[in-house]
Amino acid sequence: MPKMTRRNFLWLTGGTGVALAVDPPRKLVNKLIPQVIPPENIKPGEWAFFATTCRECPAGCGMHLWHRDGRITKAEGNPDHPVNRGGLCPRGQSALQGLYDPDRLQKISFRPQRSGNEAVGWHDAIAAIGSRLKAGGRVALMSSLQTGSLAEVMKHFAAAFGSDRLLFYEAFSYEPLKAAHGEVFGLPLVPRYQIQECELIVSFAADFLESWISPVSFASQFGEMHGYRNNRVMNRMVYIGPRLSMTAANADEFMQVPPGAERLVALKMLRIILEKDLGKNNLSSISRTIERLVAEAPELPGVEDARLVDLCRTFCSARSSVALAAPVGSTGPMATETAIVAALLNYAAGRIGQTVDFSRHHALSDVAGDGQVRRFLASLGPDDTLFIHDTNPLFSRGDAALPISRAGMIVYLGTLENETAAASDWILPIDCPLETWGDYEPEQGIRGLMQPTMPRLYDTRAVGDIFLTLAQAAGRPLAKREGGAPVASFREWLTLRWQELHHKISPAQPFENFWKSALSRGGVWSRKEPAPNAQFSATAVGRLSPEAKQPRAEAGEVQVWPWGSIMLFDGRTANRGWIQEAPDPVTFIAWGNWIDINGRTAADLEIQDGEMAELKTGTGAIRAPVRITDEVAGQTAAIAFGQGHTAMGRIAGGIGANPFLLLGAGERDVSFARGTLRKVGGKRVNDPTYTTLTRQQWHRELVQWIPLSQVSRMEPGDGEELIMPLPEGYKPERDLYPKREYLTHRWAMVIDLQRCIGCGACAVACYAENNIAVIGKGKVGEGREMAWLRVAPYHKPGATRRLGWLPLLCQHCDAAPCEPVCPVFAAMHNEEGLNAQIYNRCIGTRYCSNNCPYKVRRFNWVNINWRKPLDMQLNPEVTVRSRGVMEKCTFCVQRIRNAEAHAARENRKILDGEIQPACAQSCPTRVYTFGDLLDPASEVSRLTREDPRRYHLLEELNTKPAVTFLRRVDGDW
């Protein structure tokens, strides 16, 4: 019971009743804390946004951070940024959960002899580490990929102590891609791939829509390249690889081959181009070598030469095309050779400088390769002070623990106590990327700015300031220029660097104006940088070796195929509830990972669906449940990276298995490792790790397809007539309920299924915008997830390896079956056509859910405990629901009301496209169109009435949905 004070007594006796007095969860707020010094440029009760750069992966997308009263509540894509063009992936949106993570490091930890903790302040920590540096010894620095000002500070810091051991380490280094371009063109770089205008993309197991280089950029370009527009031929994508990934499922053709066989398919394509003289560049000097390599290779079942000939003709004759290679996380000769052949294909078709653009090479070009990492680790000794910043090598490299432990002192700088932090002497808590100044250049010429988007939550420091302070404490202060004055703060260093950029980019403009413009825009970017000179070398072909004859596989022997998850990437986001609860796009599995094996492999091992199995290589072993599917090649075991943490936080710890343990040094040949698989017994029950969707439509035609040959002949207005959710759709002989009239607006949505790639960004955006609770692994396993929007995969009828995704939210029906059955009128129709849910009326009968044919309503089974400070992210304009009430999609009614109020203040009408629900705003491929059906000029009205691909979900039920779907297009070339 709360303490009974005079104030509480008066509050209770004011009509709230005894029930509140005996309810322990009831919160009593006894203090009002005024903002005596309010945050700068913040107006209480009004929205504001700050532009910054996302650092959740090396892609460097532009972000807008939405604020209310000085705290961030929503991350969205920056529409002006050339990388992501306004879209933002699930990981980028989850940056808020990284900022507000209850498990964040809040204070310094000192562990003498790496055991136990001692409380130490910043002054003592800087003094102790500085004293060691001052006394001599060597410095080594390992960091996640950095560019710009922070990279300069790190280089100067290492040089001040006579060291050149600065390593930018990422678990996914794209080493095969860089090595291939180095050998073929003399440019060991990761180029920018221009796929937007490609008429054909051929992917050799490069999952560019998920986690490959810059997935949001590729998704945005793919939406334009592969989307259907009237009177335009739709472009194609062919995927060649061992597993039906999300990228492969979006392909028009999926050629399933064993791991490593992508190289042979690429060689056959190159031989056909040379043999039939299809290319634009002369490669006759290598034709004999290619012919010999193909002749010595084994046959690949399912890959027809006639099909490859057609593919090669299209690849070379297209206005633009591209070949992509190198799976995420792969290293070794086979992966490099595949990338070399892909580079030769691009050169033969004349794509260098067109779709393969070295003028804007990616920052990943500076990431250390496997050999560099091994040499760095081997160099560590007891005289070294090793600084590890924002990376987790003890999780992503099985061979890193022993050499790192040899360092005399390990100083970890990060935001979470992960596996590497747990093995360190000093743990220094640093600012979250959303709390700090900085800059990042993801591609040459694209310079993104980072700014503190809210005050620090804890006693943390900027990384740049830590290195500057340590150098000062060691008696070696850092200066930006040789002979210049020491720089006191990282903000000063950043300003000096941007003053240099100002003189280079816009010298006529005052620096203050240049700086403010860059801050508000999120950075500066030039249209084109000078391209380095690519010199073709035929000697790279000598690197190619004959196809190795694989010995007959013994019982249980498999090829390990780990893959990069769009949600978890390399594991850095595993402690975030939104990410764990967001299902995998292909399997719809959440909260864990699993091993995919072929039915033949399962039969040989006598293992059943869902049974636990052990996957073992020469470097380690993991255990996970098995999923039996024909979506992977025979003798292949596929498992996602990112799970299996032993530290890092309460959410990530103990979830799933870590495939990095299988990939020690020397174990990544043939793209990845060979291993053995055996069943170990046990089966998971009611576990979202295995509770999968059937993906069958059962003749309900939920996701519909239309042949390209048919739709390309149709005119606007052709196709089926829809029952409109307007007065014109009312028919007395058919309708049970009276006609509805709308005076101002009738809000509606169009969802283009052809553009939907299944990434789930919209679903995570809905969580963030609408205060949707993360219910947890156990409750999801019981089917009690709370997502208002699910992007479920379904098989194309008759094609088991073709998927279409159905973003399913409330349909805001005109004749909504959920409304008349509610006994307390909690489900009701508002004056603008929305199916509203009045939470404080709801008594939880769940009649509405039973009567909803779309099953898009969610029931709160438990009261959610919002662990502090996660409650700071809650949107103040959306009610936080309690146990016992139904909830559902509202079309983001709070955004609608804000736009209406804004238009009313300006005495004007709402502009078409001015209102964007969170799902529409975040989508990288622009699947969603929202607007007013009463406005005949609106895009949503035009698409609903004229697009020949239009249809309503389950329209035969006469619910008159306000959501119109546009059919996927089946490219029947």
TrEMBL record:
- Cite the 4Fe-4S ferredoxin-type domain residue spans from the record: 747-777
Q: Which UniProt keywords apply?
A: 4Fe-4S, Iron, Iron-sulfur, Metal-binding, Molybdenum, Oxidoreductase, Signal
Q: Check the UniProt entry and state the signal peptide residues, or none.
A: none
* Top-level taxonomic group: Bacteria
InterPro entries per the UniProt record, alphabetical: 4Fe4S_Fe-S-bd, Asp_de-COase-like_dom_sf, MoPterin_dinucl-bd_dom, Mopterin_OxRdtase_4Fe-4S_dom, Prok_Mopterin_Oxidored
**Is the keyword NAD assigned to this protein?**
no
Locate the 4Fe-4S Mo/W bis-MGD-type domain: which residues?
47-103
GTP-binding: is it a keyword of this entry? no
Report the GO molecular function annotations.
4 iron, 4 sulfur cluster binding; metal ion binding; molybdopterin cofactor binding; oxidoreductase activity
Identify one Pfam family in the record. Fer4_2
| Record-given protein name | Menaquinol oxidoreductase complex ACIII, molybdopterin-binding-like and iron-sulfur cluster-binding subunit ActB
Q: Which organism is it from?
A: Geotalea daltonii (strain DSM 22248 / JCM 15807 / FRC-32) (Geobacter daltonii)
